[in-house]
Amino acid sequence: MPGFKWWMLAVTLASGLAQAPPQLTTIQDTLYNADGTRFNGVVTISWQSFEAADSSDIAAQVLRLPITNGYLIVRLVPTTNATPAVLYSVTYSGSAGVQFSETWLVPPSLTPLRVQDVRVSAGAGSVTTPPSTIQIADVTGLQTALSMRPVAGTGFAPSRTAVIDALGGLDGAIGNLADCVHVDGTSGPCGSATGPVLFVDSESPSGSIDGTNATFTLANPPNPSSSLALFRNGMLLQSGPDYTLTGNSIQFVAGKQPSPGDVLQGSYRVAGTLPGIGFVDAESPAGTVDGSNLVFNTTQTANPITSLAVYRNGLRLKANVDYAVNGTSITFGSGLAPQPGDLLLCSYRVAQ
Fold first, then answer.
1. What is the number of domains present in the chain?
2. What are phi and psi of 238, to 5 degrees?
3. Of 175, 289, 313, 351, which is most buried, counting CB atoms within 10 Å of its CB?
4. How many CB atoms lie within 10 A of CB 119?
């Protein structure tokens, strides 16, 4: 049956061709130590799985070869034309342990190559094909993710407070190191907003305290005038019955001039506004002052609640001892109801 025999021979040859091993490149060299003696030890070569140029699947593996009297010879599948192009990781171990590591990029070659021809770091010999580079477009969704991240704006500077510019980039805040940054990205002296905002606390008005002088002068005109809280020996005085204010001049009512030994102190605001913050000065809370009513109400809710200052006949009362606050409601403690003729005044901050 000659026909059958020839058919079997053809199948066998075809099968052999299909299973032929991939082409190999020989790396052959003599290795030396730095002192000129020949290297003795072990070289470890490892690689990740890849597809050779002839479509052979090369599995990930680690190969260890003994090096005796400096002689190295190894045959490896070329990687410059592999898919993807890969590197061999090579580690040399001697009697003193690991000495150094390097990477190889092996090209196809019918003649043996030296180590310098495949060493990537050397940049010499026949190695001319660099490893493949992954582009941003090669990674699905990477460009979109990068586009969503803020970028450095034209005014970006290290060690500055970051602000978002009109294009969404990160810029550095402009201003002095002692400035504060506002929510709109502008900067200025802390506490500044629309014009300079100044608070004057515990100022002693100029003027002779001799029992006859009725005119005293502040360093600045309070703005607004109702922001002035004038204290005499710790008691809050009342604008109108006790004194009048014109600009920065305080004029006491006849018969109420400060006497020798009295201490005058004034606190007030000077010009400007703060965004989101309002002030209520010298408000008389609503409620009947009849000796029995305990509940009085402010027109607005103090914010923060601790900014509320309640005065009874010029004496500042203590929260949670003399009264309790709930929203706009001030409730005096049992037995502490304001009596007929008592004067209640409140000052506080509000949110705007």
1. 4
2. -110, 125
3. 289
4. 18
